[in-house]
UniProtKB/TrEMBL annotation:
The keyword Signal applies. It comes from Pseudofrankia inefficax (strain DSM 45817 / CECT 9037 / DDB 130130 / EuI1c). This is Leucine-binding protein domain-containing protein. It comes from the Bacteria. Residues 41-387 form the Leucine-binding protein domain.
Length: 414
């Protein structure tokens, strides 16, 4: 099996400089690939935070895309991609998007970025199909060219899922923290707090305006301690999350559970010295089956990662990248013999039963329901706990699912 090697990408040299490297997919699939017909080829852009404050949670998105090209190959498509680094900088993100459209002439963009909302208007104006994860702003629910692999999340609305999880883990007094600059992070922190209250759990501390990417958490830790919290949820990147957990432990705050949406798997390896020790006993949530479940879908994901020579454990970001390619492939199959941006958007607009290549288990999500989706496929979360060097499955939470709470919402982030 021959694989073309990606071009090495260098450092970002200025705020408005785009880091881009053209990469091509494998010329063959795994041992089960018996496709004899020539593969159809498509060039896409990959827009993500390779560097900058948000890179600790997002840079592995590229690994998932690379692994996804092997899935695409088995399905008859050669996916070539151009990598564009936002550098977690608004000007750079916009310049990166512009280059992908005007110079690289990509047919679609796969995206995971904390500041994608700064470039989304441009991509929408140019009718570029965007596939990725709705982690940054409301454009995933308002822009008809944008399709989130976990559904266009309505973070201002409330599902019972988070509250049920907090109760399962014994939390009685919750602290919730999110980034102020990221609308989805801010709204997620507030909605998690309200979900806890719906479940009858006290919210002793809520901060939905924390500085983006900061690890200066001393005042927040002391405030949480004074509030008597025994549980933490943080809708932030791993560098901020682990700083919080370290601070709480140093202050001897007795915790029932710390719950993080990022940091699972390989993310711990890039979170700094001692991260593995600090993450002991921490709970990590995913919107997909974790590889520890050893299902057919997770085994295929791991096989494709191996084919792509990715040796680190899958992360939330790499799951998103892998599944984004899978959604692209599904759209390609319905977009005609010579897919265009318009036909891809048309195909994506007709998908209402997305199962993330089986990684949602028995659940599906309507990626075009831009009104009611709160927490992904059937409002389900899969939860693991770090013990030693192993992520263990949490009984009652693989998955734990909830329902929309009528009449409850939080204010949109300003």
């Amino acid at each position: 099996m021959v694989r073309k090697r990606c071009l090495l990408w260098g450092a970002v040299v200025a705020a408005a400089t785009v880091l881009a490297a053209a990469c091509s997919s494998s010329s063959g699939g795994d041992k089960g690939d018996t496709t004899a017909a020539p593969k159809k080829s498509i060039t896409i852009g990959v827009l993500t935070d390779v560097t900058g404050p948000a890179s600790s949670g997002n840079k592995t998105f590229v690994d998932g895309v690379k692994a996804g090209t092997y899935y695409a190959s088995r399905n008859g498509y050669t996916v070539k991609y151009v990598l564009a680094d936002t550098a977690t900088n608004p000007a750079t993100a916009l310049a990166a998007a512009q280059k992908l459209v005007t110079q690289d002439h990509v047919s679609a963009v796969l995206a995971e970025s904390a500041i994608l909302f700064t470039a989304s208007n441009y991509l929408t104006a140019h009718n570029v199909p965007v596939i990725g994860v709705s982690q940054d702003g409301p454009e995933w629910t308002t822009a008809k060219n944008m399709f989130s692999v976990v559904g266009p999340l309505q973070q201002t609305k409330i599902a019972t899922t988070n509250g049920k999880l907090y109760k399962l883990l014994g939390i009685t007094n919750l602290a919730s923290l999110g980034y102020g600059v990221s609308p989805v992070s801010s709204e997620s922190a507030s909605s998690a707090a309200l979900s806890a209250q719906v479940a009858g759990i006290k919210v002793g501390y809520l901060n939905a305006k924390f500085p983006f990417g900061s690890t200066d958490v001393g005042p927040e830790v002391l405030a949480m301690k004074n509030a008597g919290i025994d549980g933490l949820t943080a809708s932030v990147d791993p560098n901020t999350s682990f700083a919080l957990i370290t601070g709480l432990r140093n202050q001897n705050v007795p915790m029932k559970a710390s719950i993080l949406p990022t940091g699972y798997g390989g993310d711990l390896l890039q979170a700094g010295p001692g991260a593995l020790n600090q993450a002991q006993g921490v709970y990590f949530i995913l919107q997909y089956e974790p590889v520890e479940m050893h299902t057919a879908a997770t085994k295929q994901l791991q096989a494709d990662f191996t084919s792509a020579a990715i040796t680190t454990a899958p992360t939330y970001g790499s799951y998103n990248g892998y599944v984004s390619v899978g959604l692209l492939v599904r759209a390609l199959k319905a977009a005609g013999a010579q897919p265009t941006s318009a036909s891809l958007i048309g195909a994506l607009s007709n998908i209402h039963d997305w199962d993330a290549m089986g990684l949602f288990g028995s659940h599906t999500v309507d990626i075009n329901d831009r009104v009611t989706i709160v927490g992904g496929a059937d409002n389900c979360l899969w939860v693991t706990k770090l013990t030693g060097k192993t992520f263990t499955l949490v009984s009652g939470a693989t998955p734990i699912c909830g329902e929309l709470v009528p009449g409850k919402s939080v204010a949109p982030a300003s």
